[in-house]
Write a structure and sequence with these properties.
The structure holds two protein chains of two kinds.
Chain A (H helix, E strand, L loop, with lengths): L16 H5 L4 H33 L7 H12 L8 H35 L12 H15 L9 H23 L4 H25 L2 H11 L8 H19 L2 H7 L3 H6 L4 H23 L4 H14 L3 H25 L8 H20 L7
Chain B lengths: L2 E12 L2 E12 L2 E6 L6 H8 L7 E6 L2 E2 L5 H4 L3 E4 L11 H6 L12 H13 L15 H14 L4 E5 L7 H17 L3 E5 L3 H7 L2 E6 L2 E6 L1 H4 L2 H8 L1 E8 L2 E9 L2 H4 L4
Parallel strand pairs in B: 3-8, 3-9, 6-7, 7-8
Antiparallel strand pairs in B: 1-2, 1-4, 4-5, 9-10, 11-12
Classes of the chains: A mainly alpha, B alpha/beta.
Chain lengths: 374, 266
């Protein structure tokens, strides 16, 4: 009997002669176009973010044109190209730009975290909010506001508590589900259970708090990016720069995990390990974001779905699209929250839900006719 | 014929319950081996243990005389492909994207043109390239099964494991899927191991039948030697009329045998 020596990995059982020499078929052309369209769509989202930022910065008591905004920003990086007054520079760079950058980074981070959480948990309802991470942060804030139990002192007492308790909440979800093999079902159920627990305790704290404490808790709980400055942007930015590439590096594995753990494992992907990695990294990013801006619940849920309805479920594109859509949603919501009843600022989280829900419902109903771009 | 897949003294259990007991099996290249047996006999478990989706408690598995028991999962995925009975459908994927998933063991951060070429070739081979941009969830059961087979082929492995590939299909699609499989196995020198319930389909398309009961192999060999009235009585507890036509047994189940008479225990 003939004996083959050694393993034959990656046998070329597929004969590529035909595709190498042959002309592209119509369906192959269509596929190439759909890939191009996905790339162009993401590029268009980036252009929208840049344009929307320029336009939103102009809104406010001091009249500024879009051109002046861009000239000021260019001047900041390449000095003395344009002649810009000091007051203009201060308004654009120190007052209005942190808010814009905050909206972009927080929207991007929450959109991406929602997207990857939905994929690893194989659950379209998964998001930082529904998994209880935001409620965990709110619990930390309530502890600081009502009982004065703080982890960091000074001006960071709320942020420190929110960050640590958001992380603790994720840690408990991961640890609880780890006891049962870190399946997606146990993670979702553990998250929902903790969400209820923290909501109940937050209600209790709200009941026993005095007016000042209650006002502090509710201001944080309704979510706002008003309090951001360049220092906090720096912290959020570093967390985003570290976490987003780590999450994106798992795009292929996320594609496989949406078809089930067994299917993923048969193609070489350890689903449990990827799930753990994604949950740890995304929880860290969410904790860093919500600590500074409070509970903004809708983006992590809806941005991935909007992206999926338009682009499909290929995470190589979807992660980027969900991030960009999250950024645009939060930019627009924040602009409305600041300017609709100026000088009164409506909480960004409230505006998010009011404009986001009808838009999302429209997309779902439209999606019944055509699910994606292809 | 070269021995492609070899399983030696394989054991597997959930907690203290032993599901597979001391299984030994050899399948050559260009062969289809069907694993048959009643519900709970361990057919799907065996398939999953071979692909290490479930980790065996003891025993060795070799592909082309290379022991793969301790091999990394990503390396194993370049040697063994698995077609599940069903695929989870939470989020929409195009057919092209589903088949491209089969290239994961070869992909780096970014896919290459060769990966796309392999996908197109495989889709063309199975005659489903016209469905490339359709949503996988919108396909019929037969089309979905072909897509899952295409995904396994895109893995470019020597061994393909299939878990009940025809269980949800009508007769036309059952024949279609099995004909495609046989043609691929013969032309491309593959080895296919199929967990299957339909004894007549197994008899018609298999080179080897492995009959299991309660986690043990009761009989293994050519279909006409395994699918006998005695084996069917002792393993399934049924009386059946077995007709052999052109060396292919054809089974007509007649009645259940009372358990004590057949020595049959569920």
């Amino acid at each position: 009997m003939a004996v083959r020596r050694g393993p034959v990995r990656g046998r070329e059982v597929v004969n590529l002669k035909r595709t190498r020499t042959g002309k592209k078929s119509k369906i192959q052309e269509e596929h190439s176009h759909s890939v191009l369209k996905k790339g162009l769509f993401i590029l268009a989202l980036v252009v929208i973010i840049v344009l929307a930022s320029g336009i939103i910065i102009t809104i406010g008591p001091m009249p500024i044109t879009v051109l002046e905004v861009y000239c000021t920003l260019i001047n900041k990086f390449i000095p003395d190209i344009f002649s810009i007054s000091r007051s203009m520079e201060n308004v654009v760079w120190l007052i209005r730009m942190p808010r814009i950058m905050g909206a972009i980074l927080v929207g991007l981070g929450l959109g991406i975290c929602g997207c990857v959480m939905q994929a690893v948990l194989k659950n379209p309802l998964a998001s930082p909010f529904t998994l209880g991470i935001s409620s965990g942060a709110q619990f930390g804030v309530s502890l600081a506001a009502v009982f004065g139990i703080t982890i960091l002192g000074g001006p960071f007492f709320l942020i420190g508590n929110a960050f640590v308790f958001a992380l603790l909440c994720s840690g408990v979800i991961i640890a609880l589900s780890g006891l049962k093999g870190a399946t997606s079902e146990t993670m979702v159920l553990a998250g929902i259970a903790l969400n209820y627990l923290f909501q109940a305790t937050n209600q209790l704290f709200n009941y026993i708090a005095n007016d000042d404490q209650r006002s502090l808790m509710s201001a944080w709980g309704m979510g706002s990016i008003s309090g951001l400055n360049w220092n906090s942007i720096m912290v959020i930015g570093i967390a985003t720069i570290i976490c987003v590439p780590l999450l994106y590096s798992k795009a292929w594995d996320l594609n496989l995990m949406t078809i089930g753990d067994e299917g993923a494992k048969s193609m070489g992907v350890d689903a449990g390990r990827v799930r753990l990695f994604i949950m740890v990294v995304s929880s860290f990013l969410v904790a860093a974001l919500v600590a500074f801006v409070g509970v903004i619940g809708f983006i992590g849920l809806v941005a991935p779905h909007i992206g999926r309805l338009i682009l499909g479920s290929d995470h190589r594109y979807l992660i980027l699209a969900a991030g960009a859509i999250g950024a645009i949603l939060l930019l627009v919501a924040d602009a409305i929250s600041v300017n609709l009843l100026a000088p009164t600022v409506i909480p960004t989280g409230t505006i998010m839900a009011v404009i986001g829900v009808p838009f999302f419902l429209y997309l779902i109903l439209r999606g019944r006719r055509r699910e994606y771009w292809s | 014929m070269i021995i492609r897949l070899s399983v030696k003294n394989l054991h597997f259990g959930y907690n203290s319950t032993e599901v597979l007991r001391d299984l030994t099996l050899e399948v050559g290249d260009g062969q289809i081996a069907s694993i048959v047996g009643p519900n709970g006999s361990g057919k799907s478990t065996l398939i999953k243990c071979i692909d290490r989706i479930l980790v065996p408690s003891a025993g060795d598995i070799s592909v082309d005389r290379c022991n793969v028991t301790k091999m990394k999962q990503m390396e194993l995925a370049q040697m063994i492909a698995y077609v599940p009975q069903n695929s989870l459908r939470v989020f929409p994927n195009t057919v092209f994207d589903v088949v491209l998933m089969g290239r994961r063991p070869y992909l780096g951060w970014k896919g290459s043109k060769r990966d796309d070429d392999v996908v197109w070739e495989v889709l063309g081979l199975l005659g489903i390239d016209n469905l490339a941009l359709a949503a996988f969830t919108e396909l019929s059961g037969g089309q979905q099964q072909k897509v899952l087979i295409a995904r396994a082929l895109a893995q470019e492995t020597g061994v393909i494991l299939l878990d009940e590939p025809t269980s949800n299909l009508d007769v036309w699609h059952q024949i279609d899927v099995m004909e495609i499989l046989r043609s691929l196995v013969r032309k491309r020198d593959l080895t296919a191991i199929i967990a299957i319930h339909d004894l007549n389909t197994a008899a018609r398309y298999s080179d080897i039948i492995v009959m299991m009961k309660k986690g043990k192999i009761v009989s293994a060999g050519k279909p006409e030697n395994v699918l006998t009235g005695e084996n069917l009585a002792s393993v399934y507890g049924i009386q059946a009329n077995v007709r052999i036509t052109e060396d292919i047994p054809y089974i007509i189940p007649l009645s259940r045998i009372p358990q004590k008479t057949a020595g049959f225990k569920k």
